[in-house]
Recover the amino acids of this structure.
């Protein structure tokens, strides 16, 4: 299986390079950027829900994990988080040892290992997403948890690709009887109601603070089972108070809740 995964990874990188000129960053280059992928990780304190996020810049932009942790704290819940996220990484890069994700999964107990990849609308990317999920899932289960696929979103000028993004994320979750987190579908629903909501950042791909907040709401409700609509209306994103009206915050909380209802947990 590892040989097949390596062969598919080669195809994956070649296709990405040909189509998009994307650079996959390996640990040495990550270190040059100040992103240490090899240093030991602290063990999380006991209690609460332990969630490990594995992904790329869509996860660490605006610090989605901390935002989820702070959301929970604001409601009296406890979610303890850790993150392995590097620029331009696909999940197969993590699964095949180009980060310390495997060691971090093995290092302690987890309730959820949340896997995040980019839009994954191409067939070759969907294939490697499923392979990576199958490689990581046994490790997550051995650590006491389940893998969860965090659905991302397409670029802002390609809203027609939302269904393809969802299909890839769902397929990977279903391949291991994992958890589907429909963050991207919440984005789709919010933008269909109000296209002016600034979910995207300036580049039209990475999340703005509102986009990270909406994704965090969906993660929060999925992993806790608690209604996102009951959260306070003065949230923080990456430790900074969100500059948004109460009406907008309540709208996003409703959208997140509705997304969870559309895709019940298995």
């Amino acid at each position: 299986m590892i040989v097949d995964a390596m062969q598919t990874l080669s195809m994956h990188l070649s296709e990405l390079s040909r189509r998009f000129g994307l650079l996959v960053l390996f640990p040495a280059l990550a270190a040059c950027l100040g992103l240490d992928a090899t240093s030991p990780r602290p063990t999380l304190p006991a209690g609460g829900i332990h969630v490990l996020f594995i992904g790329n810049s869509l996860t660490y932009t605006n610090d989605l994990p901390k935002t989820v942790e702070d959301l929970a704290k604001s409601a009296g819940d406890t979610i303890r988080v850790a993150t392995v996220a590097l620029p331009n990484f696909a999940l197969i890069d993590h699964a095949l040892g180009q980060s310390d994700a495997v060691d971090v999964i093995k290092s302690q107990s987890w309730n959820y290992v949340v896997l995040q990849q980019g839009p994954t609308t191409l067939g070759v990317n969907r294939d490697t997403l499923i392979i990576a999920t199958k490689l990581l899932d046994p490790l997550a289960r051995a650590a006491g948890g389940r893998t969860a696929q965090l659905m991302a979103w397409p670029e802002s000028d390609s809203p027609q690709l939302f269904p393809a993004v969802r299909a890839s994320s769902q397929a990977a979750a279903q391949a291991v009887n994992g958890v589907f987190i429909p963050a991207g579908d919440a984005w789709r629903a919010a933008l269909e109601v109000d296209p002016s909501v600034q979910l995207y950042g300036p580049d039209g791909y990475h999340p703005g603070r509102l986009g990270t907040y909406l994704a965090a709401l969906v993660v929060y409700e999925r992993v806790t089972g608690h209604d996102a609509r009951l959260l306070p209306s003065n949230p923080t994103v990456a430790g900074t108070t969100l500059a948004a009206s109460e009406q907008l915050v309540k709208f996003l909380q409703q959208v997140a809740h509705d997304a969870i209802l559309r895709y019940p947990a298995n």
